[in-house]
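Progress narrative, work stream C.
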Amino acid sequence: MKLFFTKIFWICLLICLAPSITYSQCGDNSNYWEESWVSCAKKESPNASRGNSYWLLFEFTEPQAVSTTQIWNANRIGESPMGAKEVYIDISIDGSTWTQVGTESFTWGQGSENSEYAGFEGPDLTTYGFIQKVLITVVSNFDNSDCVSIAEVKFNINPLACYGEEDECGVCDGPGLSTFFQDADGDGLGNPEISLQVCEQPDGYVDNNNDPCDNGLYSWADIQTLLDENGCTGCHGNSGAGGLDLTSYEGINAGGDICGSSLLTGDKLVSIITTSGYSACGTPISFPSMNDRVSGALDANEIAMIQAWVDSGAPSDCNCPPNSPDVDNDGVCDASDDCPNFDNSLIGTPCDDGSVCTINDVYTAACECEGEPIADSDYDGICDSLDLAPLNPCTADGTVGAPEPQGWVEAASNDCDQDGISLSDGDINDFDACIDDEGTSMAAECRCPNSSTQSGATYVHSVGIWGTSAYYAQGLPDGNISGGIGWEDYLEVYIPYLEIGQEVCFDVAFDKPDGGVKFEINELGSYKFFNPDTTKVNYEIQTVCFPAFVAGEQLIRITRHVTGSVKVDGSTYEHCPCTVSDPEYTLTECQCPNDFSSGEGTVVHGAGFNDIQEANGFPDGVATGWINNSDTDSIEFSFPSIPINTEICIALSFDYAAGKVGFTLNDDYFEIVNQTGSTDNSVFQEMCFLTTSSGPQHLKIKEEGSGSIWIDGAYYKSCNGCLSDSDNDSVCDDVDTCPGHDDFADADNDGIPDGCDECDGNLIGTTCDDFDPCT
């Protein structure tokens, strides 16, 4: 049960099973109850750590600052034994994270069942901060019955708690720190360059930054504002009366035709403004005074301000009174010079920042020589003017591969060796397609470029394809083509291992010019092809190729795409002999080519055909009579006790391209089709497979397809222990990939034993010498 309440001074919560409550102990402590909270079944708790339990959940509509609590245990007449005894209390904000109140469970007293029962004081929750959910879990009661009960719980709420955000000054929903500016000259105006962020205004600081000169001096900007606002520049503008220009510092310094450069000495300027017929400069100035000629006459404070400015030397900059230090002699005193060791007159003039990757170099207001950057179109750290391949992020010197010029950077998206693995994917060497994110690639062109071989995918499963023809899609292309793959049909083949980017090609045929084929890889993605040559229809063979986009096993489902139907005649991919990519990797020829035991199979039963004894022992060129009726014809072989993964081979021939053989090996059934498509029963092929258990082996053979089969013997091959293991690494010398070293020591897990690894991953990032004097 969840109850929702609004914030008041205190909250009295009565949990009950009825939709409303008539009586409340909050008011009168009475015991006249119509309802109490009673639970007789354990339920899954909102707090997972409490499991299935008796529990009661209080939930406020918003987090509350709960202080003290008051609890009334069950006290209805005859029901106090059901009252809660051992209790846990948990609190939460979100209902996911719970905090237990106290370090152990609480023990509550039994209710008294009288009208004066006032309950008892519960835990004080003040220290737990704001709370939205309170969970009470009852572990036991007083009569050990299956029902527990609580009458009432009251939560007192602190209304003075901050229900908003408390700022850095401890004020609820306050503005936070205030900024105050230094007022060193005490004029009530603050210095914009010196400030403090504090809670209270400190002495010597004000709340404005209107004083650019906190030394008490006035600048020309202050005086110019006074003259302009009071109409003085109306007569004395750029071509002012009497040659006096009050619109610029240079103009007022010149002084006009009467006073000349002495205007800014003594009280001459103020006297001219305030005295009628003033004649201290020789020629009397006509009546009335200048202050009387304008409508916005300067008041006494403004007159005093002008005189104070003249007395301080009439500075242009209030930070630069006469004789202020100017170490670089550029006319800007040190106090106002952002570049005290630089001639400010050079700002904006041309310069050379020394970089060939910039143009229009000039001195900036920060007194630095800077130019406009020349574009780096491929973002490789080398600007286009120096980049021999400005649009290729894989090189700046025109040749992809290390070393590159100093400053060149590799982008995370680079795949410079086009191996399908970018730097962000973890490519260890992005200039070598044979080194991927794990080390040297297992692709044939990397592992055995001069001795690679080709194989085709093996058949797995098909739906909707006629007869045994689906099997013709496996192996290398051989002219035997599968049945048509039409609407809702599919054919699945398997390749044991491909590297990312390694190519596999399929020979396919389309019945229509607008037909298509889709190859779905490991249910992760697919490649789709429309008929590449629309002149080739009626199932004329064409080849389509695509790269693997995920490393490892490849389960490939082939379907028609859009319309028509397609047929498949095998596939091709390159691999190194006897590696994990080789379909024959698990066979004896790869596992122990020079160290194996062999033995012959013994015919133990045959029925429905002639010359049964010719199948006995190793193949010798003489075969049995034909075997063609799966209901009556069969032959059975026995083999001695041999290990698991022993290779068993049967030599047989077909007279029908769609022939298929059913094998039952120790109760396990599987089928193999005519792998070559040969119909000449004098041409034998060997079908080999591995045992799935150790011990004696029993093999039964039937013809399950079309036509007949002939059998010319059976044998097995089983790997022995090592004839020689010269480096004692438990890998026989004849299959040892790293002779003289431990094949299982591979620190960088790249599949190459450390003793034969030219790129040991443990060295990546360590110091080396690339023999380039420019790096």
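Work stream C, second folded protein:
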Amino acid sequence: SSRKSTPVVGEALSLRGLDGKGPQLGIPHLKLGMSSPLESEGVRRFAEGLDEILVVEEKRALIETQLKEQLYNWPAGKRPLILGKCDEKGAPLLPSQGELSARGVATVLARRLARFEESPRLAERLIALEAKDGGQSIPAFERPPYFCPGCPHNTSTKVPQGSRALAGIGCHYLAQFMDRDTATFTQMGGEGASWIGQAPFTETRHVFVNLGDGTYSHSGALAIRAAVASGVNVTYKILFNDAVAMTGGQPVEGGLTVPSLAQRLAAEGVRRLAVVTDEPEKYPPGTDFPAGVRVRHRRDLDAVEREMREIPGVTAILYDQTCAAEKRRRRKRGRFPDPQRRVVINERVCEGCGDCSRTSNCLAVIPLETEFGRKRAIDQSSCNKDFSCLEGFCPSFVSVEGGRPRKPSAGGEEGLPALAEPQLPALGAPYGIFITGVGGTGVVTVSALLGMAGHLEGKGVRTLDMTGLAQKGGAVWSHVRIAATPEEIGTPRIGEGGADLLLGCDLVVSAGAESLGKLSRGKSQAIVNSHETMTGAFTRNPDLDFPASELKRGIAEKALSAEFVDATGVAQRLFGDTIGANLFLLGYAYQKGGVPLSAEAIEQAIALNAVAVEANRAAFRWGRRAAADPDLTESRANPPSARPGSHRLSESVEEVIQRRAAFLRGYQNEAYAARYRRLVEKVRAVEEARVPGSGALLDGAARALFKLMAYKDEYEVARLYAETDFVSRLAARFEGPYRLVFHLAPPLFAERDLETGQLKKKAYGPSVLILFRLLAKLRFLRGTPFDIFGRTAERRLERRLVSDYEETLALVLERLSPERHALAVAIASLPLEIRGFGHVKEAAAASAKKKESALLALYRASPAPAALAAE
């Protein structure tokens, strides 16, 4: 074997007990220090007397080819059979792509040995090894890499309707996996070259090409020069993000600035240039741009792109916005402005339509499950203060300017009893810890801390981190192997079924095929963060279901034991952010006897890391305490006062109805609530008579009717700000002087965008709360001739939706039968899809009406039972 693959061979021999039996089975092994040129004399001595040689090397066959050449002229009776990438019949044996696995090599060895010796023990090992092939559960829910929260690419990679884009090398490569009409990529420096070849043979007149400033400095300038020379119609979108972000945030070579880059492009023959930025004030009049360059705000990107695609030849848009990951790093070091501003969402006003997620493409906008449906919240721990979510058409967004988040006191350890030390695993053999998680959340840090702790104790430790395209939101795996001495560890990679502990910092990644393959029902302990962290698909699908039960079941079926703890949620409530979740989980695993290192060594490693030492120590200790005393941890992390009533879900249909009737009483009056109850009771009576024991139609109708009747007009939005605990809850979350800014588009007063015709939001200061209090008191005017807001098209639509729904329910109830029941529930629940404000709600209503027409047609066409026809 080659020097690199030798540890894999060692692991393969030890897997399933093949080691220790090598001499009896006749398995000599030659480790090559240099793979090329192959040292002939030593190889010849090794090969003498052998019947077969298996060459184990990664990638292409280099050693195998040389060995065959050196032994080619040996007599047929003396020349051994040489195998590697293929067997003697040409069938694939060891892979040429990817990495070698110990299990794969062990399986090949066992199969080849079985040809020379009939051994029941060897046959048992082979059956056990082959049983690991396949059979791994691969859940449909995966965590692909995604742009960081606040990443410039969330906005810059958008293209106008009817256009398409090409990708290249850089973080923008990920746009191919999103709804960005971006497909194919090229090598660095070849951006747009494929279009030069395609353009003469397609009816497409123009494409956009994404390009980073680092790539431009490296070789992208050559691609632009080639495009200019060819005369194709193309617009280069050059992201100037101030760093080579994908490989660690290094500065771009050459000291480029946006003005100097614009000058270079103009000199190359680019016909039209525009600068788009989130900070247009950075470029005042007189900035050294070429003639004709305009600076526009990033919200105008679509208009700029539409203009550029109509200009023949090569054009360019310089999109200037600093990398989100770099912003976070520099802010931690005090080298970048950190605006004293945060965005929060009033979930009572929020409709859960997802327009903010679609607009911002940001993973910091997360789901919040409430009694009145799924809403949105901002994850302050991951938010990079990009503020593009404010562009979503919704009045629920509020900026908190000034002040700072209030740190909870629940994470203090004063007066708590000492923790008992657990029994640590013995190190009779190398111990494997497989760590899974999400890129950017500290998974690799946990791996490094364990490595340092092992070093401090004089143990052998080897780690291997697999990050790939793990931007914020992508899967990360870390292999940690610990032994009594370094010599006992071969490869750092944990093989199939080789994990003693799965430390699952993310439920989705932990239930993936890569992670499940490391588990063994005979020995693996799985301790997994159960927090439901949504994937990037949530930005495009507001109703995306998180299959928590399925993911947990997949892990539990593969492991000897499995425990699930909401490390993220507990860390948020104890410490005020989620950064400590992984160390909390490590502490939990340690206390459960899953880590063969002392707590003292781990805490010393935390201190040597010199980053948030006290916070990380506290997270580790509270994780231990959660394992030792879960009731105490629960009482600290979840006091009764910490959870708003709207976050508690109803436990019965009756409770659903009661809570909504009470809400409508406050929304309007008792008569309005009575109207709701009358229709709901009618549904109950008919369903009980015709489909006894179900209740599904009652539940769907109770929720949908409430959704339509409690429409959020100006009075209701005002009430949900002025007559709820929203302001007091903010006071509990923030401290220091701050002011609130509300982002609204009042239908009677807001301006309209000249291109889209949609209302434009504006920022209003805290004095708007006075207006909210007044409007909330005037809600008795709703629906009367004195309701000035009720005359707009949106309000007329909302009232019409209520009356239409009452007619639809009457039709459904008239023809209800057991055979039609499922269709009836689907029809009755459709209004739950009508969410949002303004044009967003109008589009949702139109879509729901279209679905309703199709379902009603099916409902009418389905035959009625004889008993119903007799009625």
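The two ends are 83 Å apart (CA to CA). No further action is required on this item.
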